[in-house]
């Protein structure tokens, strides 16, 4: 975000003196003298304050001009989202437009960040016997199963659930969402966002994985984008 600094050197306007012919009474002369003196003090005070502000603002502008690249470098790279719909399998979601589609056994679709394959999102679709997630269990019950499955992996050092929730999808579809952390011997600490729903006797599972190491934690901007992807996962509208 560009830093905009507005410099203004202005003196407050004052009511003009009455230039109508003055009477020669002493009271009128005293009143005129007090107003003039007061006006002069206000103007000088405003001028001195404006100079101080000008010096300080100029210093900030100089620093901003000397280090424009440093300011921009501290901002996270913008991530644009693009709609992806699989009409055959019947799901839709937003995905980072810069992430590339790759083939992987067992995944219905998989997108990876270029040169950072550990940052990825994938969808798996499998047939099930239940008609809704509610028949399988509550969000907390399903979350516990996910954490247990993560902990059974040889590469997992630790896994911790952060949150589990439920929302309504297309046509009132029941959708569960989860967030948890996994410390793995393959890639270190990761943040995982997951969503699941059941439609037409098929289980749809979205997994978003992103590095979240202590030396390079997940920044707020990227987190917001990944959460938007998570919330966009839904059954594709039928035409």
TrEMBL record:
<dbReference type="GO" id="GO:0015979">
    <property type="term" value="P:photosynthesis"/>
</dbReference>
<dbReference type="InterPro" id="IPR016123">
    <property type="entry name" value="Mog1/PsbP_a/b/a-sand"/>
</dbReference>
<dbReference type="GO" id="GO:0005509">
    <property type="term" value="F:calcium ion binding"/>
</dbReference>
<protein>
    <recommendedName>
        <fullName>PsbP C-terminal domain-containing protein</fullName>
    </recommendedName>
</protein>
<dbReference type="InterPro" id="IPR002683">
    <property type="entry name" value="PsbP_C"/>
</dbReference>
<dbReference type="Pfam" id="PF01789">
    <property type="entry name" value="PsbP"/>
</dbReference>
<dbReference type="GO" id="GO:0009654">
    <property type="term" value="C:photosystem II oxygen evolving complex"/>
</dbReference>
<feature type="domain" description="PsbP C-terminal">
    <location>
        <begin position="80"/>
        <end position="234"/>
    </location>
</feature>
<dbReference type="GO" id="GO:0019898">
    <property type="term" value="C:extrinsic component of membrane"/>
</dbReference>
């Amino acid at each position: 975000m560009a830093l905009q600094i507005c410099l203004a050197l202005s003196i407050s306007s004052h009511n003009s003196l009455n230039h109508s012919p003055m009477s020669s009474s002493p009271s009128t002369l005293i009143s005129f003298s007090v107003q003039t003196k007061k006006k002069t003090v206000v103007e000088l005070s405003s001028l001195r304050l404006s100079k101080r502000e000008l010096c300080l603002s100029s210093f900030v502008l100089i620093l901003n001009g000397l280090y424009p690249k440093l300011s921009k470098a501290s901002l996270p790279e913008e991530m644009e989202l693009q709609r992806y719909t699989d009409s055959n399998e019947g799901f839709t979601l937003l995905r980072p437009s810069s992430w590339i589609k790759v083939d992987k056994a067992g995944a219905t679709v998989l997108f990876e960040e270029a040169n950072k394959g550990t940052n990825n999102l994938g969808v798996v679709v499998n047939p099930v016997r239940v008609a809704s997630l509610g028949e399988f269990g509550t969000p907390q019950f399903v979350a516990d199963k996910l954490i247990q499955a993560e902990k059974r992996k040889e590469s997992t050092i630790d896994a911790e659930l952060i949150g589990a929730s439920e929302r309504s999808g297309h046509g009132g579809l029941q959708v569960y969402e989860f967030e948890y952390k996994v410390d793995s011997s393959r890639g270190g600490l990761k943040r995982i966002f997951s969503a699941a729903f059941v439609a037409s006797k098929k289980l749809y599972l979205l997994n978003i994985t992103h590095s979240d190491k202590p030396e390079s934690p997940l920044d707020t901007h990227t987190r917001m984008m990944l959460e938007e992807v998570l919330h966009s996962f839904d059954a594709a509208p039928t035409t």
